[in-house]
Amino acid sequence: MLAALNIGGIEIDVIFKDIKNVHLSVYPPTGRVRISAPRRMTLENIRLFAITKIGWIRRHQSKITGQARETPREYLERESHYVWGRRHLLTIREDGVKPAVTCGHHSLELTMPKGTPADLREAVLSDWYRSELRERADAVLGKWAKRLNVRLSHFYIQRMKTKWGSSNPVRRTIRLNLELAKFSPECLDYVALHEIAHFVVPDHSDRFLAVLDQNMPGWRTIRDRLNEGPLPVID
Predict the structure, then answer these.
(1) pLDDT digits (tens, 9 = 90+) for 183-218
(2) pLDDT tens-digit readout, 144-188
(3) CA-based Rg of the chain, rounded to a whole angstrom?
(4) Nearest by Cα to 43 from 2, 98, 90, 76
């Protein structure tokens, strides 16, 4: 069951679950607020709970929205782009051949027909990031699915504004944020474990956290590093 609250101008998504305790979360990159509550609680009780947490919510939203963000990309020569957590300088090669991307140690070479506009350069580079993420995610998700003894039917890659990943245990599918290809591989490893773990424990209860602790003791440090950005520009 889903509901919504507005307290002091703050929109709060409420989801009722088969859990024992209330869980309050503020999600990057937009500061989206969600409360997961036991089905026995009334919406009014949840409202009263949220009112007591307004100061905490505002502080966390301020921290998230104040994070550094990437400057808008123009896909020009010597522009900085990140690949698996490392900074690369873009090199534009215009020789009239089929579009291609080559990643060097510190460079990212984009080969395009002469005069190709920035939006097409962006599309080619996005497709390349998607291929990079798909190849690595296939192995990482497979590792955690085997470790936790679950079956994953399929995973998708898309641009996501408010999440690094999501899962559907019923359909046995996972969605990953395309931006993960710009962060260090350990960030993908953490997100993959997090989403696969939801096949075992659907909520964010203590039992879910125990699964993360058992399989990746340092996951909190990785999560914080991921959520501290720099975040992509949101359209």
Answers:
(1) 999 999 999 999 999 999 988 888 999 999 999 999
(2) 999 999 999 999 999 887 789 999 999 999 999 999 999 999 999
(3) 20
(4) 2
Nearest to 152 by CA among 164, 170, 130, 135: 170
Q: How many other CB atoms are found less than 10 A from the CB of residue 164?
A: 23
The residues, any chain, with a CB within 8 Å of residue 197's CB and separated by 6 or more, are: 144, 148, 208, 211, 212, 215
- Please give the distance of CA 145 from its chain centroid, rounded to a whole number: 19
Q: What share of the chain is helix, strand, coil (3-state, %, to 5)?
A: 40, 30, 35
Q: How many angstroms separate the Cα of 84 from the Cα of each of 79, 143, 227?
A: 17, 19, 15
Alpha-carbon torsion (230, 231, 232, 233), positive or negative: negative
Q: Which among 86, 81, 92 is positioned nearest to 121, based on CA atoms?
A: 92
- Of 85, 84, 101, 82, the C-alpha closest to 93 is 101
DSSP assignment letter at 164:
S
- Report whether the peptide linkage leading into residue 29 is cis, meaning its omega lies within 30 degrees of zero: yes
- CA dihedral of residues 76, 78, 79, 82 (deg, nearest 10): 130
